[in-house]
Amino acid sequence: MADLSDSAESLLANSSVQDTTAVDQVLQSVQQAGYGDSYRQHVRDQYHLYVEMADRISSRRMLANSFFVGMNTAVAGAIAVSLKEKLIDPPALILAPVVAALLMCSAWWMMVLSYRRLNSAKFKVILAMERLLPLAPYSAEWAALEEKRRSAGYLPITSVELIVPWLFAAIHVSLSVAFLARFVF
């Protein structure tokens, strides 16, 4: 569930008291006094379910990342083999798979941003729910990571995730330039 900790960075660094109050107001649609004896148990059950749902989103995010890594690796490999074996003629045909790969990298980058925002919102809700519970493990986890972040010992996962699509894009462009250069020189 590293995504939740990663999302906490942007949440806690950029959140305001007004933001927290808005989440609390929406979250607590019914106060304990008007709910009944099972209020605390239901809060714990809902917290457990919500954390599980956040973990599932993180799993889907990793699955999507694996898909994009696999697809980009396959395209880069195909371009490299084409370069080595001189399989594409005319050379301008190399542009089609490269453009497709660059569009795929762009879609991947946008997906990572979307998951980052979704996880940040989920983390705000989890932190608000923790204020209704006796323990606040995610708040404590963030406090521990904050110490590492200040000493440059922590790099958020999303920061790395946002770089990887552009690294693949650079590989695709470099391979296509190398491919085209073989025909020019």
Structural write-up:
This protein is mostly helical. It is built from 6 helices and no strands. The chain has helices spanning 2-14, 17-27, 39-85, 95-130, 137-150, 157-184. The longest helix is centred in the middle third of the chain and has 47 residues, at 39-85. The radius of gyration is 23 Å and the shape is elongated. Mean pLDDT is 83; it is low at 1-5 and 7-18.
Give a short synopsis of this structure.
The protein is mainly α and 185 residues long. The chain has helices at 2-14, 17-27, 39-85, 95-130, 137-150, 157-184. It contains six helices and no strands.
Give the N-terminus to C-terminus distance in angstroms: 51 Å
Average pLDDT rating: 83
Overall strand count: 0
Order of helices and strands: HHHHHH
The number of helical segments is: 6
Strand fraction equals under 5%
In which range does the helix fraction lie?
A: over 70%
Low-confidence stretches: 1-5, 7-18
Structural class: mainly alpha
Give Rg in angstroms.
23 Å
For the biggest sheet, the summary is: none
Question: What labels would you give this structure?
Answer:
185 residues, mainly alpha
Would you spell out the secondary-structure blueprint of this structure?
Blueprint: H1 2-14, H2 17-27, H3 39-85, H4 95-130, H5 137-150, H6 157-184
Helix pairs in contact: 1-4, 1-5, 2-4, 3-4, 3-6, 4-6
